[in-house]
Amino acid sequence: MNFAALPKIELHCHLDGSLRPETIINIAKREGISIPSYDLEEIQRELIAPIECESLDDYLKKFALPNLVMQSKENLRRIAFELLEDAAQENVKYMEVRFAPLLHTKKGLDVEEIIQSVLDGMKDAEDQYDIKGNLILSCMRTMSVDRAFEVVEKGKSFLGKGVVAIDLCASEEEGFCGIFEAPIRLAKEYGYRVTIHAGETGIGTNVLEAVKLLGAERIGHGVFIKDCDEAYRIVKEQQVVLEMCPTSNVQTKAVNNFREHPIYNFHKDGIKVTINTDNRTVSATNMLNECNIVFNEFNMIFEDYKQIYFNSVEACFADLETKEMLKKYI
């Protein structure tokens, strides 16, 4: 199957995990930002997580360097543009970019300026390429509940203007859903859609609680429903969509290798799965690579691809007009 020629949709991609290494070097040189090296190969080694990462927390250490250059409106706009530009080259027709605005306030930007800058960059790319995008605001589980409320409140004026959903991300501890129930409830009242990172580590019950307590419509990763019967059942029965990221899941040791990834078994059992990169730079991947991995490992056929593509269309947080457009590509 020639995946390069096929249209693609990406629903789970982190902005700060997807910077071009060249851009980091360029910005650091121009602004006098201290980084480990100006050598491209060395910076790539700093950015890319090894396939033999010890854990999710080990993987997340790779995000410190990109955030050094994501502290101005100009840089955020450029980085968002470049992400959609790169995706468009892979025949990605629609993508939802997620990021945590509170990580970009270190040089005085307020949350509204940060969100607007990323939206501006995405719009710049839409004007030049055959791609559409929307933005998901991530709240960090390592921060306080008050900070989650701050993101929800300051992002609400952008609903209908490019911001579509709220997310919880970062290191995963058991029972986090109960802690953040109030801000996510408020977000839903405002009109945010809800996607939650859960079940990326060995805690399937987090997926169950993300659906029951937080009303998650989609789950980032969800690998460990395989070990929690009740979570598996609710995901399947309520058709909660899983945003699966094979390379990332091997790196973080959610699975030991690609052959053990549950995406194919989930798909065959009627669970709605989608294919995503998670972090293009940190995982040294793109949508073409992720598609090739899944379909080569499990000998999937074009009908499987079509089903997964349509899962992505139906699950995306775009308007109906965009969804109808996306259906016509395949």
General description of the model:
Helix content is 46%, strand content 15%. It is an alpha/beta fold and 330 residues long. The chain has one domain: TIM Barrel. Helix 7 runs parallel beside helix 9. The radius of gyration is 18 Å and the shape is globular. Keywords: Hydrolase, Metal-binding, Nucleotide metabolism, Zinc. It catalyses: 2'-deoxyadenosine + H2O + H(+) = 2'-deoxyinosine + NH4(+); adenosine + H2O + H(+) = inosine + NH4(+). Its EC number is 3.5.4.4.
Span between termini = 14 Å
Main pleated-sheet profile: 8 strands, parallel
- Please state the overall shape, judged from the principal axes of the Cα atoms: globular
CATH class: Alpha Beta
Family: Belongs to the metallo-dependent hydrolases superfamily. Adenosine and AMP deaminases family. Adenosine deaminase subfamily.
Function: Catalyzes the hydrolytic deamination of adenosine and 2-deoxyadenosine.
GO molecular function: 2'-deoxyadenosine deaminase activity; adenosine deaminase activity; zinc ion binding
EC number: 3.5.4.4
